[in-house]
Every structure is written in C-alpha cells, then in structure tokens.
Amino acid sequence: MLSPAIITLPWRPDAAEHYFAPLSALPWAMLLHSGFADHPHNRFDILVAAPRATLLTRDEQTWVDDGETVVVSAEDPLQLLQQQLDRQPFTPQPHDDLPFLGGALGLFGYDLGRRFERLPSHAQADIALADMAVGIYDWALIVDHQRQQISLLSYDDPQAASTVAGGANADAG
Fold it and tell me: Name one GO molecular function term (predicted).
C-alpha cells in the first residue's frame, strides 16, 4: 500500500495564510481554516490545490473531470465520488497526528440531499453554489496549531508538491 511522503516544515503561526497565498490562484485551491480559537477542535488547517480529479454536481447532473476526460452523469454523485476514489493509486490510512492524508475534500451542499430524499422547498435558491464540488487530492499541507507543526504530505513527489505549495520546502532549508 502506497504511503505518503511527509516533510515537516518550520513552524510559523501564520502558516495557513503564508502558504495559501500562492496556492489560491491554482485550480480548486481550498483552505479549511481552524479560526485560531482556543478550542480543542480548532487544531488543524488544511490546504490543498490542483486535484487529480474533480466532481461538480448541479441538480441532476455531475461533471467528473479526471484531468483527461470530462464525463457528465445522472448517477448518484456519492457513488461517482467513490468510483473516482477507487481509481486513485493511493488509499489514505488513518494517521495518529494528521486528520487528512489525501482523498476527497470539498463542498457537500444542503441541496445535495434532494438527490436522496424528498425535502420541503422553503428556501429560495439565492446562492449560485453547486450541490457538490469535490476534488480528489494526492497532497496536502497540514498546519497543527496544537503541536506547532507544519506537515507537507504527498503520494507523488513531495518536491513537486512543495513547488505547488509555493516553495514550502524552500522554507525548510
């Protein structure tokens, strides 16, 4: 089973903002930010970009882009997501110190539930968000505020991931 290479970077309290700035222009860049609060559940920030595949669901259709082809499907979007995960050359395993080791990350909107059950339609569709927008990532930058540690992980080439992450590995030297 393929395990990710993990590089530990020097601690800096503004790591999420520092490393996300250059990532933000990349396709499907995401920052899950803990909010800096002194709460035990506000421990991690997760940064990703440039996924291996993306899935975008609007109403009854899901666009699956694996980087080579785009397929539009009316199948269950969660099953389509699982199919894409199964096609990846890596299977993330639980890690004692890291909450995310690659895989699916993104938006699962409330209206996605309409694909699976009948829900009352009280709210006006006033925000142009997809029902589901998920990327499948083979690398991530994890900021652990509790341990004051920054981890760059990659199933591919960690040096390539550091380049994508805005030269993060250059900060390690």
Answer: 4-amino-4-deoxychorismate synthase activity
For position 45, what pLDDT does the model report?
A: 96
Which CA distances in Å does 86 have to 19, 38, 60, 79, 123?
29, 37, 23, 10, 35
Q: Among all chains, which residue has been given the structure tokens 């390690």? A: 172
Please write the tens of the pLDDT for every residue from 86-138.
Answer: 999 999 999 999 999 999 999 998 888 777 777 666 656 667 889 999 999 99
The residue type at 64: V
DSSP string, 3-50: --EEEEEPP-TTHHHHHHHHHTTSTT-EEE---S-SSTT--EEEEE-S
Amino acid letter, residue 29: A
For 8: left if phi > 0, alpha if psi spans -120 to 50, otherwise beta; the answer is beta
pTM attached to this predicted model: 0.86
